[in-house]
Design brief:
Elements (H helix, E strand, L loop, with lengths): L8 E14 L2 E9 L6 E3 L2 E3 L6 H13 L1 E16 L12 E15 L9 E8 L10 H12 L4
Parallel strand pairs: 1-6
Antiparallel strand pairs: 1-2, 1-4, 2-3, 2-7, 5-6
């Protein structure tokens, strides 16, 4: 029997896919997430605050984690996962449904810098061809599938 929505937690998050041509090849902006034993690469993004929209959350998170100002170019897709209690970082005894809203974004200002006191240690531009070899979260693969399906590269 499926769980009722009152029996699990839900976390809404928003992420941005920023791709630029650099050194003759497409590069994607990734953030090194530091909350696991082995840091893994993710997209700039994270939890949406109660008083903001997913769009506002994505823009804010890119600014916080990477130092860039972005405009969103559109919704790429929504990626979801269920995280069992044993895998939750918070130690909660309840399952978590993670809902990740993923946008395409264009950088319009700012400059690359590390997040201070947050959940990422650095942001870096990675050649798209190298991403498959990186330790990364599943959101990166889902986002790049969405991005490629949109005929962006």
């Amino acid at each position: 029997m499926p769980l009722d929505y009152t029996e699990y937690d839900t976390r809404l998050a928003a992420y941005a896919v920023c791709v630029q041509e650099r050194d003759g090849a497409p590069h994607v902006l990734l953030a090194l997430w530091n909350e696991t034993a082995e840091p893994r690469w993710s997209l700039p993004g994270g939890g949406v605050e109660l008083d903001e929209t997913p769009e506002q959350g994505a823009v804010r998170e890119v600014q916080e984690e990477a130092g860039y100002d972005v405009v969103l170019d559109g919704l790429l897709g929504v990626h979801t996962r269920v995280i069992p209690p044993r895998d939750r970082l918070s130690g909660s005894p309840r399952p978590l449904r993670a809902v990740m809203v993923i946008y395409a974004a264009t950088i319009v200002g700012g400059e690359l810098r590390p997040e201070v006191g947050g959940t990422t240690d650095e942001c870096r531009w990675w050649p798209l061809a190298d991403v498959a070899q990186l330790p990364r979260v599943s959101t990166v693969d889902a986002a790049l599938r969405f991005w490629r399906a949109g005929d962006r590269g």
